[in-house]
Amino acid sequence: MAYCIDLNSDVGESFGVYRLGMDDEVLKYVTSANIACGYHAGDPLVMERTVEIALKNGVAIGAHPGYPDIMGFGRRDLKATPAEVKAYVKYQIGALYAFAVSKGTRIQHVKVHGAMYNMAAKDYGLARAIAEAILEVDSQMIMLAPAGSQMISAAEDVGITAAEEFFADRAYKEDGTLVPREVAGAVIEDEDVALKRVIRMLQSGRVETITGKDISIKANSICVHGDNPKALELIKKIRDGLEKNNIKVVPLSQFVSMI
Amino acid sequence: MAYCIDLNSDVGESFGVYRLGMDDEVLKYVTSANIACGYHAGDPLVMERTVEIALKNGVAIGAHPGYPDIMGFGRRDLKATPAEVKAYVKYQIGALYAFAVSKGTRIQHVKVHGAMYNMAAKDYGLARAIAEAILEVDSQMIMLAPAGSQMISAAEDVGITAAEEFFADRAYKEDGTLVPREVAGAVIEDEDVALKRVIRMLQSGRVETITGKDISIKANSICVHGDNPKALELIKKIRDGLEKNNIKVVPLSQFVSMI
Amino acid sequence: MAYCIDLNSDVGESFGVYRLGMDDEVLKYVTSANIACGYHAGDPLVMERTVEIALKNGVAIGAHPGYPDIMGFGRRDLKATPAEVKAYVKYQIGALYAFAVSKGTRIQHVKVHGAMYNMAAKDYGLARAIAEAILEVDSQMIMLAPAGSQMISAAEDVGITAAEEFFADRAYKEDGTLVPREVAGAVIEDEDVALKRVIRMLQSGRVETITGKDISIKANSICVHGDNPKALELIKKIRDGLEKNNIKVVPLSQFVSMI
Amino acid sequence: MAYCIDLNSDVGESFGVYRLGMDDEVLKYVTSANIACGYHAGDPLVMERTVEIALKNGVAIGAHPGYPDIMGFGRRDLKATPAEVKAYVKYQIGALYAFAVSKGTRIQHVKVHGAMYNMAAKDYGLARAIAEAILEVDSQMIMLAPAGSQMISAAEDVGITAAEEFFADRAYKEDGTLVPREVAGAVIEDEDVALKRVIRMLQSGRVETITGKDISIKANSICVHGDNPKALELIKKIRDGLEKNNIKVVPLSQFVSMI
Predict the structure, then answer these.
(1) Looking at the predicted complex, does its ipTM rise above 0.90?
(2) What is the pLDDT of residue A258?
(3) Exposure winner among A67, A116, B184, C61, fewest CB in 10 A?
(4) Looking at the domain that runs over C3-254, which CATH code has it been given?
(5) A-D contacts at Cβ under 8 angstroms
């Protein structure tokens, strides 16, 4: 039996003269790009360039909307209303759409960023606002969200496709959420262990939690980071390891509706 | 013989708690709305609301992109490169597209704002950047620009439709450009005179300049303002006067390709 | 026995072309001005003009720092760290200082705005950050904050002077906090009632809560609003009523250290 | 006879998560720091940290105000009025003042940034606005500006101290202005040549222009850059070379009034 998986990464986070991330390298190995849309990072020139690099590498385009907070990189909780969040997400998806359509492609998926991601994972009102924004702009776009989150529920409720993502290098709690970074053991440093967890999750749908107990997770995408050379090594290792185990690494849109 | 004309106005220029313009009133009388896209004015909630009001009134949706300068309302020359301007225009058109498509409509036209409008009227490089942005995002959109400007030339060169606009309440120079506001006689205060100029321009293609000499102008749209009650009165007077003279007041897209 | 009271109001909240508030009128009747500093509202030109108008009317200058969120007018909770809040408050106090010193005056007080005000009222960490910012920039500045809040405690702890404010047109709970706006009876519409509450509070130190029970409040300043003509009427009524009752209406710095 | 010279560099240009420059290294070798103030680069936390590092190294604090254009890093001409520029400069000086005074120091100098620097060098109206801003906030601050520019004239006219700066690694035209970067020979790549030019300028007041002719320049400060390791090497070389030639490298305020 053949398994498929997507590798997604946040890219296009440079801004003006400020450079961030190793996009040129990362986009050689991932299959879905979450492109910042100018609210928490990115600017029009960066978005255009990032869409071009993604396309050149056959990587699917995704919108990565965040809170309007460049100074805080969209990582700080902002108590915006669901109506505000819905409008912010639409605005940012639209902005990226312009660059995608300019290059003859479309937006495959939407993954919200940082504090918006964390807040909407737990708050159905925000999650619903995001799902509706996607539905109303282009109902063919896939929402990429944490497994078992309120966003996944909201996507089902409004009738858009959702894809669940798994964090290769993070420990999980028994309720399926991530162990917070400040807790010991939250980050899995050993690349081989990280790879084995991904493969086991794909083949058996099971992940061992930080307490040692198994839980069930069936993800369609692995979230990887490209901030530094070490992170890039992990991406390569995971991609390589997956292919050696006969797992196809392809963009979400090529298999996600089959699940 | 029947004449057609469009009435366009800048709307959606409120921002956060700040209110600007009399959009609810203005949108009852114009046929094309130039909606600010968040760079010099407007925000996602304002954009969404403005698209809704326009649609309710049968007004066609237009993007009104400007320089990233809310503090200066996009009215200050900013020496951005053509590549930057092109990307800024795409970004803003895309952002508005999201709200238009959400409501089941599309963007009819693009009219750039303030300093970008004035600079691109004279600078072919900027004008070309704007025309290409329109072409690449949606080649069916009409560029709305001053009669005889570099933007009109650029639109022709890249192969998009352009519409020329006429200012009802402004005096013209012999070269077809506007008399600067600081010159005596630049603004035509008498509403009846303004109306007669519009009707004459439509029926004979001729406008009397500030020097008394006639020049030729064939515009498809009249630019009107809705900042204050007096401006609103002029809009009503023009619309009423046009209809009494059997001139159809309809959105650009209904007649502009026929010219 | 003579009583003194200060009247404070938020001013300088215009931004670029956007006008907000009736500053020219309000500054005729209040004694302390809370001037927005460009993070949630205001801009350098507006700040300069507002300092000038305040001085012309003998009104004391105060800084009114907020979160960096013009789109939300600083009214949305933003989970910034105490270190960030401390630096934001310093930055904004300093910016206003430049305009004050330019006109030969200094900053009398600091009152934080909106969400920062509400959050710091309850959160000692934020309150302490604000108090330290004031101490480190100019320890002679007075912190203006809600009676009995964490900000008052923090001011005492770091050793700066604090002044407590009372809301003339708002109902209080038994714990001394305001009844939220959405609760019936939260806003006191009757101007005569509002005035009587202020005078009673000043003369007896007592306020009747929404439940009918009396609590003790000893405020140094009455917070009034100048957003609309009705609000302006209330300011005049309060000022007039206070003076008729032999209560001196003077800036905080003229009496607050005596308490 | 003893000569004195100051070495100045732009620092504090990081913003939020974005890192720029090698401030920790650069501040070991320069004597005056031009600290970005949040309009074109920098943020309150970065400003605070930069002031601390400068003080630790005995480097004098300077404000480095720019146009409100983070996306363009303040490098794009913005047609702001002199009144706007004056208010922007005051605002930014004030903001930095708060961090300086917090650490028990004051602002030694003001050097405007990027497009504002280039425009005000040639435009007396802008230059005067900047000089007046300095005068009105703290007349003891020194204006640092290009030799022979309109800013130097304006400083003299309003009665503040001005210091002229020399670019070690740039070729000069016969009129005393810099050869534009795009011209061949504009940048002096050879570090030994750059050093020799500085020493000759200091000892003889003469600089050889790109045409081979000598002109007279008497600068008080050498502008150096710290963007990359190579630039840092040049700083070290210049500092070392100056000291070996018995030239004292000290902050402006220690000698500039003597000239």
Answers:
(1) yes
(2) 43
(3) B184
(4) 3.20.20.370
(5) 26
